[in-house]
Amino acid sequence: MVGKFVKVIVDRKKGTCHPKHKDIIYPVNYGYIPGIIAPDGEEQDAYILGVNEPLSEFEGKVIAIIHRFDDVEEKWVVAPVGVTFSKVEIMEQVHFQEQYFKIEIRM
Q1: Which of 14, 44, 46, 93 satisfies CB 3.0 to 4.6 Å to 38 for a cystine?
Q2: CA 17 to CA 67: how far, in whole Å?
Q3: pLDDT tens column, 18-51
Q4: How many CA atoms lie within 13 A of 6 on its CB side?
Q5: What distance separates the 2 farthest-apart alpha carbons in the chain?
Protein backbone atom coordinates (compact mmCIF):
# COMPACT_ATOMS: atom_id res chain seq x y z
CA MET A 1 0.00 0.00 0.00
CA VAL A 2 2.94 2.35 0.48
CA GLY A 3 3.04 4.61 -2.57
CA LYS A 4 -0.69 4.30 -3.26
CA PHE A 5 -2.78 7.46 -3.75
CA VAL A 6 -5.87 7.55 -1.50
CA LYS A 7 -8.71 9.77 -0.38
CA VAL A 8 -9.15 10.18 3.39
CA ILE A 9 -12.42 11.28 5.00
CA VAL A 10 -11.45 13.12 8.18
CA ASP A 11 -13.61 12.29 11.17
CA ARG A 12 -11.18 13.57 13.80
CA LYS A 13 -9.87 16.96 12.77
CA LYS A 14 -6.62 18.40 14.03
CA GLY A 15 -7.23 19.99 17.45
CA THR A 16 -10.28 17.88 18.38
CA CYS A 17 -10.67 15.38 21.23
CA HIS A 18 -10.79 11.61 20.93
CA PRO A 19 -14.48 10.58 21.14
CA LYS A 20 -13.92 8.17 24.06
CA HIS A 21 -10.77 9.54 25.70
CA LYS A 22 -11.28 13.30 26.13
CA ASP A 23 -7.68 13.77 27.36
CA ILE A 24 -6.34 12.79 23.91
CA ILE A 25 -6.21 15.76 21.53
CA TYR A 26 -5.42 15.11 17.87
CA PRO A 27 -2.34 17.10 16.77
CA VAL A 28 -2.91 15.82 13.21
CA ASN A 29 -5.94 15.10 11.04
CA TYR A 30 -7.17 11.52 11.32
CA GLY A 31 -9.79 9.64 9.38
CA TYR A 32 -10.56 6.67 7.19
CA ILE A 33 -10.16 5.55 3.60
CA PRO A 34 -13.60 4.79 2.16
CA GLY A 35 -14.01 1.42 0.50
CA ILE A 36 -10.92 -0.23 2.01
CA ILE A 37 -11.87 -2.56 4.86
CA ALA A 38 -9.27 -3.11 7.57
CA PRO A 39 -8.83 -6.30 9.65
CA ASP A 40 -11.10 -4.86 12.37
CA GLY A 41 -14.01 -4.85 9.88
CA GLU A 42 -14.11 -1.05 9.66
CA GLU A 43 -12.76 1.19 6.92
CA GLN A 44 -8.99 1.68 6.99
CA ASP A 45 -7.79 4.35 9.46
CA ALA A 46 -5.23 6.93 8.40
CA TYR A 47 -3.17 9.72 9.88
CA ILE A 48 -2.62 12.76 7.64
CA LEU A 49 0.79 14.37 8.08
CA GLY A 50 2.18 17.48 6.42
CA VAL A 51 -1.02 19.57 6.61
CA ASN A 52 -1.31 22.13 9.40
CA GLU A 53 -4.99 23.07 9.23
CA PRO A 54 -8.09 21.03 10.14
CA LEU A 55 -9.52 19.19 7.14
CA SER A 56 -12.75 17.46 6.13
CA GLU A 57 -11.16 15.30 3.45
CA PHE A 58 -7.76 14.89 1.85
CA GLU A 59 -6.15 13.18 -1.12
CA GLY A 60 -2.54 12.13 -0.80
CA LYS A 61 0.01 9.36 -0.90
CA VAL A 62 0.47 6.55 1.63
CA ILE A 63 4.04 7.04 2.91
CA ALA A 64 4.06 4.47 5.73
CA ILE A 65 2.07 1.82 7.55
CA ILE A 66 2.01 1.64 11.32
CA HIS A 67 1.77 -2.02 12.27
CA ARG A 68 0.43 -2.69 15.76
CA PHE A 69 1.74 -5.95 17.20
CA ASP A 70 -0.81 -5.90 20.04
CA ASP A 71 -3.90 -4.90 18.05
CA VAL A 72 -5.71 -6.23 14.99
CA GLU A 73 -5.55 -3.02 13.00
CA GLU A 74 -2.87 -1.02 11.24
CA LYS A 75 -2.84 2.71 10.62
CA TRP A 76 -1.82 4.21 7.31
CA VAL A 77 0.17 7.43 7.15
CA VAL A 78 -0.85 9.73 4.29
CA ALA A 79 0.94 12.90 3.19
CA PRO A 80 0.80 15.40 0.34
CA VAL A 81 2.57 14.29 -2.82
CA GLY A 82 6.27 15.10 -2.57
CA VAL A 83 6.27 15.38 1.23
CA THR A 84 8.28 12.80 3.15
CA PHE A 85 8.95 12.05 6.79
CA SER A 86 11.45 9.77 8.50
CA LYS A 87 10.28 7.02 10.86
CA VAL A 88 11.36 9.22 13.79
CA GLU A 89 9.36 12.19 12.46
CA ILE A 90 6.28 10.00 11.93
CA MET A 91 6.54 8.59 15.45
CA GLU A 92 6.81 12.09 16.92
CA GLN A 93 3.55 13.09 15.24
CA VAL A 94 1.53 9.94 16.06
CA HIS A 95 2.95 9.32 19.53
CA PHE A 96 -0.12 10.88 21.16
CA GLN A 97 -2.08 7.74 20.24
CA GLU A 98 0.47 5.09 19.26
CA GLN A 99 2.29 5.31 22.61
CA TYR A 100 -0.29 2.86 23.96
CA PHE A 101 0.67 0.12 21.47
CA LYS A 102 3.73 -1.87 20.47
CA ILE A 103 4.30 -0.69 16.90
CA GLU A 104 6.56 -0.84 13.91
CA ILE A 105 6.58 1.78 11.17
CA ARG A 106 6.90 0.21 7.74
CA MET A 107 7.97 2.33 4.79
Answers
A1: 44
A2: 23
A3: 989 888 999 999 999 999 999 899 999 999 999 9
A4: 27
A5: 34
